[in-house]
Specification:
The chain is built from 2 helices and 8 strands. It has about 160 residues and is of the alpha+beta class. Strand 3 and strand 4 form a beta hairpin.
């Protein structure tokens, strides 16, 4: 097919598309507008716009947060927590890396003292002969030969 034939075919296809869509455009243009609501009908706001603060906790229930704001350079651990292990190692060979406390998932993140990838330990797993019973944001409860024991976790007095 020559260049002139291609151009002619393109024009014919364009014209066919316009003619095919023309009845749709006419039908949409002639469609009647929806009837307005009666003037005396009260319009209620959707429930999602009602009061955005209704589901928030009361300010009186947040005294701990107000007393210790999250993003403050002088933020420290609460004074009732016992100090971390003296050598800074958990289970003799891991440094604390962090915790993940989310709905349906609680992980203890441990970094080997000699280096290497972070180890993720779930509640119920056994590590170094010690079973991880419970993980919270500020302590880990373990059980072993000596019975249950609480290990505080934190960053030894640095701003949190």
């Amino acid at each position: 097919m020559t260049l002139g034939g291609r151009r002619r075919l393109a024009r014919l296809l364009g014209l066919a598309c316009v003619l095919a869509l023309l009845p749709l455009a006419v039908a949409l243009w002639q469609r009647p507008a929806p009837a307005p609501p009666p003037p005396d009908a009260a319009v209620a706001a959707p429930s999602s716009f009602a009061d955005p603060t209704a589901s928030l906790p009361r300010l009186e229930d947040m005294r701990a947060t107000i007393g210790r704001p999250l993003f403050l350079a002088t933020r420290r651990l609460p004074p009732d927590l016992p100090p971390a292990p003296a050598d800074g190692l958990l289970f003799g060979r891991y440094r604390f890396g962090g915790v993940v406390v989310a709905p349906g998932q609680r992980l203890l993140l441990l970094r080997p003292a000699e280096g290497g990838p972070i180890r993720r330990v779930k509640e119920g797993e056994v590590i170094e002969g010690v079973r991880i019973e419970r993980i919270t944001k500020d302590r880990v409860v373990v059980s072993g030969r000596n019975g249950p024991q609480e290990l505080p976790i934190g960053n030894k007095g640095k701003g949190q």
